[in-house]
Amino acid sequence: MESKSFWKSGHKPSLFGAFLYFDISFMIWGMLGPLAVVIAMDYPMTPLEKANLVALPILGGSILRLVLGFMSDYIGPKLTAQTGMSITLIPLLLGWLWVDSLSQLYVVALLLGVAGASFAAALPLAGQWYPKEHQGLAMGIAGAGNSGTVLATLFANRLATHFGSWEVVFGLAIIPIVVVFILFSIFARNSPNRPAPKKLSEYGTLLKQRDAWVFCAFYCVTFGGFVGLCNYLTIFFNTQYGLSPVRAADITTFCVIAGSFFRPVGGYLADKIGGTRMLTFLYTGACVMLVGVSFLPPLPVVVVMLFLGMMCLGAGNGSVFQLVPQRFGNEIGLMTGIVGAAGGLGGYALPLILGQLYSSYQSYTPGFVILSLIAAASMLLVLVMQSKWRGQWLKKSFTTSKTESTSLSS
């Protein structure tokens, strides 16, 4: 049986809808990253308090991804996404009209996690439409919605400066989420091949499998590294290099672009050469770049290193989710929530690592050294698991994909 090309398979309107939903949600999820420097002018914060502020949305997203993953399995990813966008209006309204203290801002930060949980609905919505040989690219395109962070870093501080208020940025964010809600409702559809809902107990059964934890570890580093740096780099450039809030956010935008737009590239290349091989290269590249950043070189050099490092992490996100559907195809809804939650926890930890070590040593060097060691450990884990998986599902999946490609070419 001949396999269809990517563009002839699946459902493009749903893929487009998933991307839009993920993109605007990521924009909202990442707003506090660039805004933290501006907010600190109204509410003076220690380095650790700044780190905690930008980390809380990631923590909220990590927890709520399990909830939205379960909802996607039971009520479908489309309705789950619509529910998520509706709830996202709450922290936006609170941030615009209610906040008048740092403690209240922490509440809003945690509630913004519902936008980050969009991952658990957007990826199943897109992925369930596509066969295994195109899973990497499909989920990479949908996952490229993390480019919404670019919108946050590019416009949040500019709008806050223009209007003389960071609160108004929360109010303005309501406009695009409403527009996307309407477009998503029109274009997106649940796949007719959506697996039957799983029982709650099956979460526990899934977590008894070693491979589930391995994927969690992989994504904790790739996605956690990407989103953690997205939220923290404006603070890093402002503190270490003395850049203004807008300029620090602009340079962060440049770095974020690499991670965002190379996610589908990572998925596509993983489809071609294998997800484990791609991850080996990408973790190695991230490790080398983070080591270079730890020396705190001149600004142009550190920007190039962070661009390349985040490119590796972003492509790694696509590579991980090229592997997940192969191993857990019938549990993709559950696994998306579980693995996504692990990625969120990694993103929550990264700003705290950098903030705490900077507070202790007045230098970012120790923090980036630790991050590079984590990337190196991940690369070694890939090599160990690759040898085990080749004798199991990875070999079978690769052989099937290769046979289908040969059949198509002949």
Could you explain the architecture of this structure?
The protein is mainly alpha-helical. The protein is 82% helix and 0% strand. It has 20 helices and no strands. The protein has helices at 12-29, 32-42, 47-75, 77-97, 102-111, 113-116, 119-127, 135-143, 148-163, 167-172, 174-187, 201-207, 210-241, 245-261, 263-273, 275-294, 299-327, 332-361, 365-389, 393-409. The model is unreliable at 398-410 (pLDDT under 50).
Give a quick rundown of the structure.
By secondary structure, this protein is an all-alpha fold.
The number of helical elements comes to: 20
| Assembly classification | single chain
What is the straight-line distance between the termini? 12 Å
Residue share in helix: over 70%
| β-strand number | 0
Largest sheet: number of strands, sense, barrel closure: none
Form type: globular
Calculate the mean pLDDT score and round it: 86
- What percentage of the residues does DSSP assign to strands (E)? under 5%
- The structure class reads mainly alpha
Poorly predicted tracts of residues: 398-410
Compressed to H and E, one letter per element, the order equals HHHHHHHHHHHHHHHHHHHH
| Radius of gyration computed on alpha carbons | 20 Å
